[in-house]
C-alpha cells in the first residue's frame, strides 16, 4: 500500500476546437479520437462522443447547434446528434486525413424552395488526399468529388452567403469555387451528353503574398474582410468589394483601356464601339489586398470576434507556436493613399510560461523555489502559489542546479558555458566558458563546497564554490566558481553524479557505459556496462548502495555500488528514458520518458507502483522534492506539471488491473474496430471488398463492454424474478384456500427488495444509467437471446409510457441491427404486435401534447407581440399630443407678445 500521486488536466492532447453558434458550448477534439462538449457556465463536460480511431482534426456545428460533424486522421466523417448524444452515421470516401469541414444549411436566393428543407443539408470536406467532397446528409452519400489541388488541401473557407468557397493547398495556392446547391435538385441537365449536375464549379486562383502553406481561411462574420493565414508569421487580409465598387472598378478599367486604344490607333474615345455586354467579373475584382498582419512568432491559428464594438474596425487573435497569445487591431478601410493602414498589437499574453521546450528543472533545498530553463529563458517559480516570480534571459540551457544558500542558480548551455544568476537582483553574475562543447550535466557535491560538470568535449571538470567581494556593490559578497582539476575521458560525457557519502563519482559516457571513480583520488573503481544505447541519466540512492541508470534503449538498470553487479534490468518505457531520480530517504525512484509517461518504481522489489499520464509531449526533465511531497516534470509541450502526493491509499492490485484494462482496450480497438475482411479469409492483406459510403458509428471500449455486461446481468436477474413469480402463480391454480395458505411466495431478490423495485423497473434503471453516447455500443454486446428478452420489457415500458424517447431509440436500433434474425424468428410476432400498438398510442399522445403546448406558446407569443405593438403606438400617440400641445402653446405666446 503506497501513497497516490495526483494530477489534473486533459486526458489527451487537444487537436481542434469549435464554438457552437448558439454560444456557451465548445466542442473539443482530442488526439485519442474522442470529442467532448464543454459548457462554459458550469466549466464541465456535458457530453462525450467516442467514434474515431485516431486524432480528431476537424469539427463543424450546424446553424442550430444541434448537430456536429467531425473529421479525423482515420479518414472518416461522423455526424453526431448533440441533443440525443449519439452518432447518426459515418461517412467513408477520403483516403487521407480530413483537414476541414463546412456544413451548408443556407442557400442562395436563386435556389429552388425545395432545397431549403432541413433534411437537404450539405457538407463539404477537404482532405490531404487533394480531394474536395460534397456530401448530401439526407441521402448520406457523396454527390460530388473535386480534384481541387495538386497538393494536400489544408484549409477551407466559406463566405457568409455560402455561395463562394475558398481552398488552400500545401503549395501556397488559393483557389475559389462557386457553390450552387440548387443544381443538385435538378437531377440531370438537359443536354445531349447527359452530364450529371454539379454544385461546385471552379472560378479562379487568388494570388497571395506568401508562398507558404495556406493553413487557415476565414471570412469575417459581419465585415467585408477575408483572412488568409500562411505557414509563417503573417495573416493576409483582403477586402471584399461590394457590387457597386466592382462596377465602378470595371468602368474605370474600361475607360483606361478605351483611352489607350484611342491613343494607339489615333481614334477618339467616343469612336470605340461599345457592345453593351457586361464585363466578366474577375476574382481580383472581388478581393482586394488590404493589409498584412505580422505576429512576433509563428502563427498556429487565429480567431475572429463574433460581436464588434464598432462597425468599421475589427480585431484578430493569434495563437503562436511559442506558447503566446496576441491580439491585433485591424483599422478601418480608407481610400487615402497618404496614410496606409497599419495593424497595431493591442494585447499580448506571453508570461509566465516557456516559449520553448522545458529542458531542465531544479528545486531549492526547502522546495519553495523551482528553477526551469529552456532555450533563451530561465524562470523561477513559487511551488506553493505556482506563480512565476523571476524571468531571466539565458542561453540554450540543458542542465541547471541551485547553489548553496538557494540565492544563486547555475545553468549549463549547449555552447559549453556556465551562467550564474543572482535571484535577489535578477542579474547574470558571471559567465564561465567551462567546456568547448555542450555542457550536459552539473551536480553539486553533498558537502556543498564544490560541483562537477561533464560535457561533450570528453572532459569532467571540478569546481570549488567560493565567495568573493562584489566589484559594483561594496560590502556585498557574491558567489564564484574556481576550476581546480580536470578528468579526461575517452568519450562524450552525458551525466555526472556524486554519491551521497562523498566517496564515489559516477560518469555516464556516450559509449553506453558508466565509469565509477573514487571522488578524492579519481582512481578508477567500477565499470557498469550492459546498456545497448547511451545512458541519458542516472542517480544514486541516499545510502550510496544502489545506482539506477536510464538509457535510450528504453531500459532502466539497477546496480549495486559494492561490486557493480546488475540487480535488475527493467523495460521501463516505450521510448527513450530521459530522466531518472531516487526519492529522498528511500529506494523508490521516478522515471520520465519520451513516451509522455511518468512512472514510479520500487527499487527493492523491482515493481512499477504507478503510471501517470498528463503531458502531451516528450518529458525532458524531472525534479523530485527533497521532502518526498511532490515531483515536477517539464515537457516538449512547454508545460511544467507538479504531481502532488495525497493521503489516499494506493493498492498495487488495482494499478495492475487498470494496466491490464488499458492493454485489453488497446487490443480491443485493433480487433473489434478493424475493417471487415472477406469471408473465410484470415489474411489481413487479402483483397477487401468495396466499402460502403455510410456505416454505423460504433467504437467498442472497456466502458461500453462493461455497460453491456451490466444490461445483460439486469436482464438475467429480471427474467429469473419473473419466472419465479409465474411459477408461483401457476402453482396456485386449482388449489383450495387451505392449500394456498401452505404455499409460500418466492423470496424477492435482495437488490430488488432493497430498492423496492419491480423487475421491469430494475432493467429500465440499469439502462438509464448507461451514458447516452455509449448506449448503442453497449447494446451491441447483448446476444440475441437477451435482445428477445429486452423486447418484452420494451413492450411493458411502452404500455406504461415510461421514458418513451429511450424506448423508441432502443427499439429502432435493435430492429436495424438484428433485422434478419427478427424476421426469421416467428415467435417474435407475439411480442411485436402489442409493442407496435402500445408504442404508437404513446407516441400519438405525446405528439398531441407537444402540439397543444406549441399552440399555447404561439398564442402567448401573439399576445405579447400585440401588447408590445399597442404600447408602441400609444407611446407614439402621446408624443404627438405633447408636440401639438407645445406648438399650440408657442403660437399663443407669440400672439400675446404682438
Automatic annotation (TrEMBL):
Gene3D superfamilies: YVTN repeat-like/Quinoprotein amine dehydrogenase. It is found in: Nucleus, Nucleolus. GO terms for biological process: maturation of SSU-rRNA. Residues 760-861 form the Small-subunit processome Utp12 domain. The keyword Repeat applies. Keywords: Nucleus, Repeat, WD repeat. WD repeats lie at residues 7-48, 49-82, 104-145, 146-187, 351-391, 432-466, 528-569, 570-602, 612-644. Its main location: nucleus. InterPro entries: SSU_processome_Utp12 (IPR007148), TBC1_cilium_biogenesis (IPR051570), WD40/YVTN_repeat-like_dom_sf (IPR015943), WD40_PAC1 (IPR020472), WD40_repeat_CS (IPR019775), WD40_repeat_dom_sf (IPR036322), WD40_rpt (IPR001680). One of its GO terms (cellular component) is small-subunit processome. GO terms for molecular function: snoRNA binding. It holds the Pfam family Utp12. Residues 248-273 are annotated as: Disordered. Belongs to the WD repeat WDR3/UTP12 family. This is WD-repeat-containing protein. It comes from Russula ochroleuca.
Amino acid at each position: 500500500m503506497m501513497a497516490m500521486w495526483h494530477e489534473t488536466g486533459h486526458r489527451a492532447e487537444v487537436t481542434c476546437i469549435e464554438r457552437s453558434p448558439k454560444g456557451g458550448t465548445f466542442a473539443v477534439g482530442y488526439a485519442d479520437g474522442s470529442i467532448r462538449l464543454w459548457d462554459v457556465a458550469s466549466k464541465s463536460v456535458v457530453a462525450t462522443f467516442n467514434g474515431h480511431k485516431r486524432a480528431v482534426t476537424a469539427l463543424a456545428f450546424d446553424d442550430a447547434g444541434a448537430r456536429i460533424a467531425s473529421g479525423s486522421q482515420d479518414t472518416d466523417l461522423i455526424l453526431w446528434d448533440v441533443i440525443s448524444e449519439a452518432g447518426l452515421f459515418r461517412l467513408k470516401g477520403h483516403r487521407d486525413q480530413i483537414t476541414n469541414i463546412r456544413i451548408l444549411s443556407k442557400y442562395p436566393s436563386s435556389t429552388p424552395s425545395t432545397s431549403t428543407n432541413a433534411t437537404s443539408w450539405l457538407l463539404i470536406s477537404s482532405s490531404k488526399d487533394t480531394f474536395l467532397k460534397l456530401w448530401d446528409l439526407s441521402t448520406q452519400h457523396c454527390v460530388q468529388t473535386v480534384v481541387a489541388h495538386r497538393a494536400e488541401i489544408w484549409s477551407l473557407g466559406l463566405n457568409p452567403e455560402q455561395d463562394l468557397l475558398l481552398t488552400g493547398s500545401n503549395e501556397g495556392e488559393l483557389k475559389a469555387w462557386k457553390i450552387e446547391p440548387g443544381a443538385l435538385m435538378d437531377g440531370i441537365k438537359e443536354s445531349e451528353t447527359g452530364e450529371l449536375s454539379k454544385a461546385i464549379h471552379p472560378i479562379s486562383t487568388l494570388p497571395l503574398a506568401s508562398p507558404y502553406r495556406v493553413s487557415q481561411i476565414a471570412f469575417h462574420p459581419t465585415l467585408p474582410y477575408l483572412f488568409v493565414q500562411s505557414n509563417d508569421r503573417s495573416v493576409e487580409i483582403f477586402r471584399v468589394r461590394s457590387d457597386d465598387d466592382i462596377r465602378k472598378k470595371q468602368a474605370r478599367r474600361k475607360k483606361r483601356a478605351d483611352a489607350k486604344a484611342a491613343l494607339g490607333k489615333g481614334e477618339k474615345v467616343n469612336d470605340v464601339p461599345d457592345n453593351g455586354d457586361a464585363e466578366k467579373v474577375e476574382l481580383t475584382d472581388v478581393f482586394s489586398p488590404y493589409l498584412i498582419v505580422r505576429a512576433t512568432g509563428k502563427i498556429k491559428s487565429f480567431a475572429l470576434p463574433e460581436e464588434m464594438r464598432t462597425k468599421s474596425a475589427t480585431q484578430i487573435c493569434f495563437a503562436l507556436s511559442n506558447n503566446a497569445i496576441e491580439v491585433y487591431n485591424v483599422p478601418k478601410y480608407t481610400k487615402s493613399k497618404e496614410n496606409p493602414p497599419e495593424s497595431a498589437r493591442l494585447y499580448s499574453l506571453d508570461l509566465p510560461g516557456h516559449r520553448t521546450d522545458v529542458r531542465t528543472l531544479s528545486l531549492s533545498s526547502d522546495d519553495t523555489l523551482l528553477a526551469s530553463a529552456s532555450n533563451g529563458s530561465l524562470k523561477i517559480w513559487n511551488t506553493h502559489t505556482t506563480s512565476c516570480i523571476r524571468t531571466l534571459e539565458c542561453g540554450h540551457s540543458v542542465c541547471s542546479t541551485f547553489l548553496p544558500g538557494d540565492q544563486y542558480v547555475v545553468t549549463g548551455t549547449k555552447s559549453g558555458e556556465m551562467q550564474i544568476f543572482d535571484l535577489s537582483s535578477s542579474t547574470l553574475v558571471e559567465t564561465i566558458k567551462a567546456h568547448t562543447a555542450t555542457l550536459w550535466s552539473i551536480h553539486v557535491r553533498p558537502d556543498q563546497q564544490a560541483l562537477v560538470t561533464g560535457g561533450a568535449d570528453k572532459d569532467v571538470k571540478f569546481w570549488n564554490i567560493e565567495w568573493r567581494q562584489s566589484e559594483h556593490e561594496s560590502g556585498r559578497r557574491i558567489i564564484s566558481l574556481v576550476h581546480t582539476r580536470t578528468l579526461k575521458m575517452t568519450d562524450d560525457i552525458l551525466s555526472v553524479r556524486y554519491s551521497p557519502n562523498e566517496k564515489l563519482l559516477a560518469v555516464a559516457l556516450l559509449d553506453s557505459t558508466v565509469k565509477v571513480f573514487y571522488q578524492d583520488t579519481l582512481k578508477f573503481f567500477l565499470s557498469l556496462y550492459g546498456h545497448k544505447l547511451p545512458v541519458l541519466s542516472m542517480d544514486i540512492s541516499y545510502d550510496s548502495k544502489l545506482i539506477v541508470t536510464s538509457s535510450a534503449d528504453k531500459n532502466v538498470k539497477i546496480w549495486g555500488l559494492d561490486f557493480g553487479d546488475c540487480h535488475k534490468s527493467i523495460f521501463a518505457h516505450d521510448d527513450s528514458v530521459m530522466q531518472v531520480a531516487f526519492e529522498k530517504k528511500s529506494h523508490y525512484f521516478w522515471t520520465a520518458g519520451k513516451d509522455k509517461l511518468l512512472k514510479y518504481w520500487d527499487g527493492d522489489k523491482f515493481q512499477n507502483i504507478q503510471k501517470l499520464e498528463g503531458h502531451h509531449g516528450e518529458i525532458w526533465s524531472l525534479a523530485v522534492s527533497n521532502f518526498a511531497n511532490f515531483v515536477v516534470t517539464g515537457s516538449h509541450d512547454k508545460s511544467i506539471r507538479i504531481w502532488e502526493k495525497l493521503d489516499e491509499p494506493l493498492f498495487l492490485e488495482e494499478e495492475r488491473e487498470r494496466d491490464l484494462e488499458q492493454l485489453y482496450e488497446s487490443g480491443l480497438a485493433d480487433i473489434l474496430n478493424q475493417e471487415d475482411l472477406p469471408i473465410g479469409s484470415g489474411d489481413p492483406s487479402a483483397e477487401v471488398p468495396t466499402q460502403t459510403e455510410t456505416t454505423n458509428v460504433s467504437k467498442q471500449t472497456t466502458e461500453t463492454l462493461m455497460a453491456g455486461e451490466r444490461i445483460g446481468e439486469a436482464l438475467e436477474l429480471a427474467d429469473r424474478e419473473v419466472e419465479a413469480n409465474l411459477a408461483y402463480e401457476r402453482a396456485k391454480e386449482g388449489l383450495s384456500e387451505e392449500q394456498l395458505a401452505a404455499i409460500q411466495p418466492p423470496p424477492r431478490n435482495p437488490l430488488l427488495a432493497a430498492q423496492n423495485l419491480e423487475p421491469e423497473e430494475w432493467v429500465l434503471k440499469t439502462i438509464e444509467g448507461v451514458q447516452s453516447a455509449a448506449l448503442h455500443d453497449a447494446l451491441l454486446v447483448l446476444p440475441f437471446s437477451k435482445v428477445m428478452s429486452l423486447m418484452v420489457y420494451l413492450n411493458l415500458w411502452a404500455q406504461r409510457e415510461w421514458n418513451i424517447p429511450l424506448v423508441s431509440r432502443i427499439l429502432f436500433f435493435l430492429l436495424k441491427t438484428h433485422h434478419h434474425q427478427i424476421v426469421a424468428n416467428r415467435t417474435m410476432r407475439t411480442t411485436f404486435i402489442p409493442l407496435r400498438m402500445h408504442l404508437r398510442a404513446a407516441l400519438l399522445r405525446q405528439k398531441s401534447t407537444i402540439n397543444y403546448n406549441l399552440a399555447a406558446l404561439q398564442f402567448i407569443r401573439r399576445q405579447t407581440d400585440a401588447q408590445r405593438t399597442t404600447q408602441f403606438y400609444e407611446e407614439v400617440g402621446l408624443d404627438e399630443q405633447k408636440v401639438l400641445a407645445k406648438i399650440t402653446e408657442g403660437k399663443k405666446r407669440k400672439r400675446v407678445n404682438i
